[in-house]
Specification:
With 409 residues, the protein is mainly alpha-helical. It is built from 16 helices and 2 strands. It has a two-stranded antiparallel sheet with strand order 1-2. Strand 1 and strand 2 form a beta hairpin. The chain starts with a strand and ends with a helix. The relative contact order is 0.16.
């Protein structure tokens, strides 16, 4: 069976390679949340400085989302994909050379710029080679890398940080990125360069990009992206520090404890892809809204939990619902908009998510310092984002997305 001239075997190979690259990107992002414990000790940083380091990557990543998506639509997703992997590999390696807070912030920011084109270009590739009814599952497979990496990272980070140290660790991760870039160059083959030439001939890229900004559907998606990723990255970036400083766990104990939510994330993302592809029209946003409501309740139960066991239990369940919403949002983009503008659309929507990744860790750091080490205010902030996400999804207008689709295709 072929789609746009690509056989199923070729689609699966490309998807496997995208999964591999996404896994490496997630590895760097997740492992930094553990490495920062050692980094702050070496560089003698406070919680606010730690939050700035964690946020610097996301600022660069967010800035590059829209340009990265537009460039993928205009010049070809494979070119932008290669550029992203090469750039992030260079700056991952350079992380090992950071000698001060300023140096670390600059390197992590440039790393984010480098990686920023990966998601919109890889999403465009999925929309190009997969039929519409399979795109949710394809996206869920790629997104599941986050859950798999989060399962491996806690124990891997504890081992590597305790043996070779954070500087050597980042050099090794950068070298792995160079290998993946070579695999992309050699094995990712796309039909007619994703029909990019046709887009340039009829001049549709510019018109499509402008139309996207006029579409309420895109603004709803951008807000929803911001809110769910604020919750996700708020938890992911600060839970290791929270469990160490507020719950008294050591790094290895944290690693073992975090394997449980990680397994749930993998199951949640895989299962969500199959569910989303079978949902009737309009039901996706309803289930997404319900999930956000459950997330808000579970966040409250987490920070009021009397024991570490209860905290991890609530965290395990909340990751399941977060996984559903995170899989649902890009699936909406892939299913409701034409593949010719998928890169731009994904870049615009995901800008919200990455801005959340920039704002939230830093805001939590300031809150923790302001409230003498308490994370209560931070959890209330995340609950507020869950509520806003409910509103954004409930008011999402499918008909306007369909109108845009018919106008542009």
């Amino acid at each position: 069976m072929t789609s746009n001239g690509v056989t199923r075997k070729s689609r699966n190979l490309i998807l496997a390679l995208l999964f591999l690259g996404w896994s490496l990107g997630n590895l760097d992002r997740y492992i930094m949340n553990y490495a920062v414990v050692a980094i702050t000790g070496d560089l003698q940083l406070d919680a606010s400085s730690t939050g700035i380091i964690l946020s610097a990557f996301f600022l660069g990543y967010a800035i590059m989302q829209i340009p990265g998506g537009w460039l993928a639509d205009k010049y070809g997703a494979k070119k932008i994909l290669l550029f992203s992997v090469i750039m992030w590999s260079i700056f991952t390696g350079l992380t090992a050379l950071a000698w001060s807070l300023v140096a670390m912030i600059v390197i992590r920011f440039l790393f984010g710029i480098g990686e920023g084109g990966f998601q919109p270009s890889s999403s465009k590739i999925i929309a190009t080679i997969f039929p519409r009814e399979e795109r949710g599952r394809a996206m869920s497979i790629m997104l599941s890398s986050g859950g798999i990496v989060s399962l491996i990272v806690p124990l891997l980070a504890a081992y590597l940080l305790g043996t070779i140290g954070w500087r050597t660790m980042f050099i090794i991760i950068g070298a792995i990125g160079a290998i993946i870039a070579f695999l992309y160059w050699k094995y990712i083959k796309l039909p007619q360069d994703e029909v990019v030439e046709n887009s340039k001939e009829n001049g549709s890229t510019k018109v499509n990009f402008k139309e996207l900004f006029k579409t309420p559907l895109m603004w709803n998606l951008m807000i929803a992206y911001f809110c769910i990723y604020a919750v996700n990255w708020g938890l992911v970036s600060w839970i290791p520090t929270y469990l160490q400083k507020n719950r008294g766990l050591d790094l290895m104990s944290i690693g073992w404890a975090q394997t449980i939510p990680a397994i749930t994330t993998i199951i949640g993302v895989y299962g969500s892809g199959y569910i989303i592809d079978k949902l009737p029209r309009g039901m996706d946003k309803i289930l997404g809204s319900i999930s956000c409501g459950v997330i808000g309740i579970l966040l409250y139960l987490m920070f009021t939990a009397e024991s570490v066991t209860m905290f991890i239990g609530y965290q395990t369940v909340v990751t399941l619902f977060i996984a559903f919403v995170i899989t649902l949002l890009p699936a909406i983009v892939l299913k409701k908009l034409p593949s010719s503008i998928t890169g731009s659309a994904m870049g615009i929507a995901n800008t919200g998510g990455q801005l959340a990744g920039f704002v939230t860790p830093m805001a939590i750091g300031f809150m923790v310092d302001a409230f003498n080490g308490s994370f209560d205010a931070a959890f209330w902030m995340l609950i507020g984002f869950a509520v806003i996400c409910i509103i954004a999804l409930l008011t999402l207008n499918d008909q306007k997305g369909t109108l845009l689709n018919s106008t542009l295709e």
